[in-house]
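pinging the channel bc i need a second pair of eyes. not urgent but kinda urgent?? the chain im working w is below, pasted from the shared doc
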Amino acid sequence: MTRTAQILIFTFAILLFAAAPAAAQTADRAPQLKGVLLIKWHEEDKFIFVPDDNDPLRFVGRDGREIKPDAMHTDGGSIPRVFWSFKGFSPWGYAPAYIIHDWLFHQHRCKRDQVPNNYTFAQANKVMDEVIDILFRVKKAQPNSYARRSIKWAVDNFGAAAWNGPCTDDLVEPRRRTFSFRQPVTIDRISFSD
């Protein structure tokens, strides 16, 4: 083997080994879901997502981009009421996925989806699907591949109108963002508290 061939092989080997850790880090980065999900009841079938000051809900994708929703009005998953009684089709069963998905839709409709968080319609739907997968893996939701595929199919095929809809007042005004979850909420004789 000539000296030139040895140098080329050695150079190639160094480049290969130098690139391998970077490629492995990119490939090994799994999506992550972190934080606390707080929902405040506003009125019948209308709720407010409230970011926790100490540990806000956030999703970090494979590409390292972080999605951290701000306070907004929400109805959870836009599941038609007729399906709510079927396992996996509750509008709150995969709540973190629905909140992050709603946030991406809101940001897009209101032209606030700036780099690096400028997701496409397909990417926003994939994020929702990835969060549902995380909920299955960490046992926060019972795995239901039929529900997961059906929900993804529905948003892929029927969600474009909402994606391209008008910017609505989904965000909560700053003066209404301070909420106390320490006090019980009493309705007649039913009491809910932390």
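so Residues 10-26, 183-194 have pLDDT under 50 and may be disordered. and The radius of gyration is 22 Å. — does that match what u expected or am i reading it wrong
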